[in-house]
Amino acid sequence: MLKEINDLFAGIPMTIISGIFLVISLALSILDISALIDPAWGTVIISGIPLIYLSIWRIIHNPGISKISSALLISIAMLAAISIGDLFAAGEVAFIMAIGAILEDKTTERAKKGLKKLAELAPWEGRLIENGNEKIIPVETIKQRDILRVLPGETIPADGKIIDGNTSIDQSIMTGEALPVDKETGDSVFCGTINRFGAIDIEATKVGENTSLQKLIHMVKEAENKKAPMQRIADKCASWLVPVALLIAVAAYFATSNIIRAVTVLVVFCPCALVLATPTAIMAAIGQATKHGVIIKSGEALEKMGKVDTIAFDKTGTLTLGTLEVSDIISFSKKINENDLLILTASAEARSEHPLGKAIVSYAKEKNIIFAEASDFFMEAGKGISAQVLQKSLFCGSEKFLTEKKIDIPPQIKDMLEALRTQGKASILIAIDNICTGIIALSDVLRPTAKDMVSRLSKMNTSTILLTGDNQQTADYFAAQAGITLVRAGLLPEEKVENIKNIQENGRNVCMIGDGINDAPALKTASVGVAMGNMGSDIAVEAADIALMSDDISKIPYLKRLSNATVNTIKLSITLSLCINLVAIILSLLGVLTPTTGALVHNAGSCFVVLIAALLYDRSFE
User: Fold this and answer.
1) How far apart are alpha carbons 456 and 621 in whole angstroms?
2) Domains, in order of start, for the chain
3) C-alpha dihedral sign at 339, 341, 345, 347
4) Of 384, 382, 341, 380, nearest to 364 (Cα)?
5) pTM for the model
6) Which of 268, 269, 374, 575 counts the most CB atoms within 10 A of its CB?
7) Quick one: which of 562, 521, 523 has its CA closest to 546?
8) Across all residues in the chain, what is the average pLDDT?
9) Distance (Å, rounded) from C-alpha 135 to C-alpha 477?
């Protein structure tokens, strides 16, 4: 019952009504109009009850010195002002505290949908093969060593090993790789990944809570629980603020025998400006960031971003655009030029569902290539395709695929394949009439602003590192293009988390920037997580503290400068508020201020802090 009343009074609508009562009280006082009941009583009741409730709750539930809080000091000042009949002063300190609480709540709100969305990716059922029969069973009943069949387009229900069949698996949920990974008998597969092509039979090796997907969910949940809400700076100081304020007030009373001076000291000592310093600066900075397409979910994230000295990047979809484009068309035959090779390959791949094939077809269409009719099309999942085009027999696929078809691959072509791999490119070998004739290479594309962004961060004394699930050669190639020297490749989600923890253990503050579901645990584990909001997965966006809605990573240096300025503004506001409080205490002891005038000076200090914070909104940080 008490909590419901407290929550009602602490809400925005009642706080607005509380402020109206306070303004009416001030107006009546200035106009020297007497009222039967001072409207300030409305402010005292509406804003004062949550304040007293909070101070008592902390005394009962908080451990040790944290029982003493700024809420306790302001409650004492409010009750002291009421005891001498200065209702305006009592209402004013309670109202300022209510405003501070609302502002802070607004800056620390977090979306909780990410974990739910991640859990929804878990498969509900699997196809069990038992005594030669196939039946659908709930995923929770799958046991180790069960034989499971996974058809094209289905989600793999458990971690396992392929015992029959070839396919390509979309592992982006786990590794962030842009391309499906070709798999064959003996290869491992992960729960939650998607079988793209051929039907496969797997032997379950990890089931239930032990699967890779469930571990991923657990890591996000664990990291979420480690995120503590932003603590008020005033409460950090309350352990000495409360006793000092009471001591000075008591000393003032005994020295002057004047209770009004003692109460005035309590009123001006209230850390309301201190309470407002952090949330107002953060609200202004969040508004500034929103104008630039950067969504900051909490004040804590903004404060921590100001302390970040190391930024870790995912590769695919973060440093790169995450889309495949044809980068090289290489013909090794004098009879077949590059254009002819493209016509033949695109015509053969026109019926393929593989992403590499689709990318080649898309490129050919952009070049206005006229496709030839293909016949006898056949696809071997995870390996390649064969077809007849313009009376020519074509095999298009991997080096292993052509070798299985007894097609010789000359040393110079193997050397070219290796050179393309070192450039982070995926290659399709093309054999025409059983002769290896050419290569078509495809590559992800580095974001145009990536190199400049890394350079600007370096000038701000911020280190960069690449953490990716891609292979080492691809990672090294794109890292070199972007100017990143430290690379960790071939990482699963838990390995990204481990890398971030290791960096943090060395005393560094880490910001992780990623876009995929597999980045969610790392985004949560890092001091600050930044997600690519436009093309990034919903789960990554929900797991992150900050989202770049335009996917413009050139905003990272802007975000760092904004965060630094916000932290500096908070420090300035705190310093000024303490100085104003010090002067007000001296004037209170000298009898210059009364509780009412002290409350007005106290209010002016709070307004000054708000004004300084508001200046953040229109400053340029580009």
Assistant:
1) 13
2) 2-108+229-285+562-618 (no CATH), 117-217 (2.70.150.10), 294-319+447-549 (3.40.50.1000), 325-443 (3.40.1110.10)
3) positive
4) 341
5) 0.63
6) 268
7) 523
8) 82
9) 46
Q: Would you mind telling me the total number of residues written for the chain in this entry?
A: 622
Residue in 182, 235, 314, 519 annotated catalytic: 314
For the four alpha carbons of 364, 365, 370 and 374, in that order, the dihedral sign comes to positive
Which phi and psi (to 5°) does residue 178 adopt?
-70, -30
CB 159 within 8 A of CB 190: yes
Strands in 325-331's sheet, in edge-to-edge order, are: 325-331, 435-443, 426-432, 392-397, 384-389, 374-380
**Radius of gyration of the CA atoms of the chain, in A:** 33
Strands (DSSP E) found in 6-70 = none
Tokens for 448, please give them.
Answer: 């145009």
What is d(CA 300, CA 230) in angstroms, rounded to the nearest whole number? 5
Q: What per-residue confidence (pLDDT) applies to 348?
A: 92
- Exposed, middle or buried: residue 147 (CB in 10 Å: 0-12, 13-18, 19+)? middle
Q: What DSSP assignment string belongs to 402-421? A: HHHTT----HHHHHHHHHHH
- Whether 314 is catalytic is yes
Distance CA 484, CA 498 (A): 20
